[in-house]
Each structure stands twice: as structure tokens, then as C-alpha cells.
Amino acid sequence: IIHTLMYTLMIDTNELFAWGDNVNGQLGLGHTEPTLVPTRVDTSIIGNQRIVQIAAGRRHAMVLTSTLFCH
């Protein structure tokens, strides 16, 4: 079994999109269904902070903001 997840960050708009296997909900979309097309992740929890880094693994994902907030 191959577990795959992908993220892309739209720099101009600070929008985060995710797609992939999502068996553990690691895409951050609020469900555990596989998602085959890029889907916008709700980043309202970080407010106006800029996303500067994304880290992801087999069962997790996180973002780091310009103010060093990690979620």
C-alpha cells in the first residue's frame, strides 16, 4: 500500500490545497476520505499569518507561519 499526500501553497493568496490518500485525516480537510483533486484547506485558525513552511508525513501534516505558529 502506498500512502501519498500532496500540498501546494498559493504564495499570492496564502491558500493551502491538499490531496491524496488521507486515511488518517492528515490532509486537514475534516474527513478521512481520499481526495483526488486539490482541495482548499481551511486555514482560518491562523488568521492573517503567512504560511512559510509545510511538513508532512505518512500520518501527519503541519504548517509553520511567519510568527512561528505551528498547527
- What proportion of the residues form beta strands (DSSP E)? 35-45%
Percent of residues in helical segments? under 10%
| Structural class based on helices, strands and sheet pairing | mainly beta
How far is the first residue's CA from the last residue's CA? 28 Å
Low-confidence stretches: none
Radius of gyration: 12 Å
- SSE string, helix = H, strand = E? EEEEE
Q: Count the E strands.
A: 5
Task: Give a short synopsis of this structure.
The chain has 71 residues and is mainly β. It contains no helices and five strands.
Write the layout of secondary structure elements.
Layout: E1 5-10, E2 15-20, E3 35-41, E4 51-56, E5 61-65
Antiparallel strand pairs: 1-2, 2-3, 4-5
